[in-house]
Design brief:
alpha+beta, globular, 14 strands, 215 residues, six-stranded mixed sheet
């Protein structure tokens, strides 16, 4: 009975390991392609820390992932949809959020691209719409002076491919900040390699226990 109990435990362990991780959409790449800042694209990882109000003072274009698997509690106005127009996302729509910003120490410009691993739903660029969407913030980030956000007339954002935005920012103080909403990663529901490796160990344990039962 003890050996049988060990086999059941090993099978249960393998089953847990094969379960899919929670879905997560993410920034997968970025590049600075123009402008005079001389910087590059930098992705930030948790914990994010302070963001905004001249905190970075860097020539780089930054991005980080915000809240995931969020159902909008109410209708949300957005500034750019994939068709090029502004519009509204309906309450109940599920989105993943990402933050892109440029916070240089001197007047300078940056042109760049940022690519995500899932399709873009909308981009938010104006002060009031950013404030209205702040339920989507990254909980490890401290957003300084959020009311100072919002792009100016000489800044530009476009959706150049289903999963890519292009930005053209000119800034000094307090910087340029936008929020990008995407769907979820189509590959994120697959078991992670580490989980598969663990499940393999569990299955090997089952085989070992079975061999011990043979006379």
């Amino acid at each position: 009975m003890k050996v049988f109990g060990n086999i059941v435990a090993a099978i249960a362990f393998a089953g847990v390991a094969l379960s899919a991780p929670s879905v997560f959409a993410t920034i997968i790449s970025g590049a600075v392609t123009g402008g005079n800042s001389g910087g590059s694209f930098v992705k930030l990882f948790d914990p994010i820390g302070d963001v905004g109000n001249n905190n970075h003072q860097s020539p780089d274009l930054f991005g980080f992932d915000e809240e995931q698997n969020v159902f909008l509690a109410s209708n949300l106005a957005v500034d750019l949809l994939p068709g090029g127009e502004s519009g509204t996302l309906s309450a109940g729509q599920e989105v993943a959020s990402h933050y892109i910003f440029f916070d240089p120490s001197v007047n300078s410009s940056v042109v760049g691209d940022v690519t995500f691993d899932s399709d873009i739903v909308a981009v938010i660029t104006t002060r009031n719409n950013l404030i209205a969407s702040d339920a989507l913030v990254n909980l490890t980030a401290n957003y300084l002076s959020p009311s100072l956000r919002g792009l100016e007339s000489n800044d530009g954002v476009s959706i150049t491919a289903p999963q890519t935005i292009s930005v053209d920012f000119f800034a000094k103080s307090p910087g340029d900040y936008i929020r990008v909403l995407t769907q979820f990663s189509p590959t994120a529901a697959l078991p992670e390699p580490g989980a598969l490796a663990i499940s393999g160990v569990g299955l090997l344990g089952v085989g070992f226990l079975r061999r011990r039962r043979r006379p």
